[in-house]
Amino acid sequence: MPARSQACAAINLVYGSLVKQSVSFTEGPVGRQLTLMALPMVWGLLATMSFNAVDTFFVAQLGSDALAAMSFTFPVVMLVTSMAIGLGAGTSSVMARRLGQRDLEGSRELAGDTLLLSFVLSLLMMGLGLATIEPLFLLLGADATLIPLISEYMTVWYLNTPFVIMPMVMSAMMRATGNNKFAGMLMLVSALVNVALDPLLIFGWGVVPRMEIAGAAWATLITRVGMAVASLYFVTRHLGLMTWPSRHWGTLKLSWRSILHIGLPAMTSNMIIPLAGGITVALVAAHGVDAVAGFGVAMRIEPVVLIAFYAASGVIGPFLGQNMANEYHARQDQVLAFVLRFCLLFGLGLTLLMWLLGATVAAWFSDSPAVIAVAVAYLTLVPVSYGCAGLVMAVNAAFNGLGFPVPAMVISVLRVLGLYLPLALIGQTVWGVNGLFAATALSNIIMAAWGYRWLRRYLYRVQSSAGGAQ
After folding, report:
1. Long-range own/partner contacts, residues 254-258 (CB < 8 A, 24 or more apart)
2. Which of 23, 165, 242, 340 is most buried (most C-beta within 10 Å)?
């Protein structure tokens, strides 16, 4: 055996006990395994998604202008989050496949290189954001009178960028090794800390000054810093899944390329969502500040409602990635059938829930009839397509997990630019603000049917090719 191979074998033996995998992806009933992987993420993501909802709840107490200002920030906040999700998708996909091949040394090197890449990209995003606050939000349709409020919030929030992106990437490492429980617990604790800090910093108490809308951003920043430190400790000390980044540019470049092969299309796919949100905010702004505030309320409620779909899409990629071997192809088929049933049935339940409770929940955030009316219109029309929206998420995650990210990017781009935008322009002309929301629902339904069919065909070709190569 060559010296390099012997060294790799020794390192794999040493770190095999450190890179702990709490759930096996290649054995056991598929439905049960997916549930075991997803449940911790449901609670963790529910807690994380509550960040924005809780911030919105307390900021709404400051008045409609503050609520509208925060609503304008939603697409930008989601843009940064989407970058984090894209990098996480690349990390999870590559690492899951390396772990499936028992390449533990390569997995550890990948972890250090990826964290450095995340830090560099987050600094670039933070600098760009801080330099463009006023022109960007004017472009999104914000009234000049709201810019000071938006600036108060985003000047602090942009400092948070590295602590959004890097923990998301480390969470992807945990998912790739099946350690979802700690990731979920960490998200839950962070959300509880945020709930405690929000009223304290927004309204002030004792020696703590009243910061109003900026206080919400400071609460998020403090919480996210703590989350980043805890994530780094767990990945480094408990999993043993971290080395210093490579000092050789050639090696580092290869590592970054493997991540960005999945990560860039995944970032593009996820960034399309806030792009659609930005377009919608600009179109809704034509109907007044109350309409923007109402749309903002709906946008804070929706991610919390869709939490199970986010969790499912978060685990399907690593699951498919580790089941690439020929003997596991039947498991890949089973997971697609399971996800289809889950998305459609759970989506139907969410539709009924929003029809029954949408108005009640919207009233928690505002007592303005105009604001509530817009929020209720959204939560009546769009939930019809929630099951299909969840299926689109799962399809995109599946393509990424299989190491073929281009279809996920194509699906996302076509959903927004090919379907949503023309339908929204037509819908607004014919039906006003409700037409925008109907366009969202129709786009989700059409793209879910097409995307799922594409995924089935692609997986069949991959499996047939692998079987023929045996």
Report:
1. 255/109, 255/110, 255/113, 255/114, 256/113, 256/114, 256/117, 258/90, 258/94, 258/110
2. 165
CA distance 175 to 322: 12
Q: What is the DSSP letter of 327?
A: G
Question: What's the pTM value of the predicted model, to 2 decimals?
Answer: 0.65
Mapped onto helix, strand or coil, the DSSP state of residue 205 is: strand
74 Cβ contact list (under 8 Å, min separation 6): 52, 274, 277, 281, 296, 299, 300
Question: pLDDT tens, 382-406?
Answer: 999 999 999 998 888 888 777 777 8
CB atoms within 10 A of CB 7: 12
Token pair for residue 434? 């409700």
The DSSP result for 13-62, as a single string, is HHHHTTS--SS-SSSS-HHHHHHHHHHHHHHHHHHHHHHHHHHHHHHHTT
Dihedral pair phi/psi, residue 30, rounded to 5°: -60, -50
DSSP state of 101: T
Q: How far is Cα 215 from Cα 234, in angstroms, rounded to an integer?
A: 29
Report residue 206: phi and psi, to 5°. 60, -125
Position 408: which residue type?
A: A
Q: What is the pLDDT of residues 209-222, one digit of tens each?
A: 999 999 999 998 99
In this predicted model, what pLDDT tens digit does every residue of 260-269 receive, in sequence order? 877 777 777 7
User: What is residue 13's predicted lDDT score, i.e. its pLDDT?
Assistant: 33
Name the DSSP class of 208.
B
223 close to 161: Cβ distance less than 8 angstroms: no
The CA distance from 102 to 95, in Å, is 10
Question: Around Cβ 15, how many Cβ atoms within 10 Å?
Answer: 17
Alpha-carbon dihedral 55, 61, 62, 68, rounded to 10 degrees? 60
Q: Which two tokens stand for residue 41?
A: 């993420």
Rounded Cα gap, residues 273 and 76, in angstroms: 11
Nearest to 269 by CA among 392, 97, 445: 392
- Given a contact cutoff of 8 angstroms between Cβ atoms, the answer to whether 312 and 393 are in contact is yes
User: Which three-class secondary structure state does DSSP give residue 187?
Assistant: helix
Contact indicator for 37, 92 with CB cutoff of 8 Å: no
Cα gap 98→114, rounded to integer Å: 14
Q: Note the Cα 92 to chain centre separation in Å.
A: 13
Task: Return the structure tokens found at 341.
Answer: 């049933």
**Number of neighbours of residue 189 by Cβ within 10 angstroms:** 16
Q: Which of 80, 90, 181, 152 is nearest to 122 (CA)?
A: 80
Residues 452 and 388 sit within 8 Å (Cβ to Cβ): no
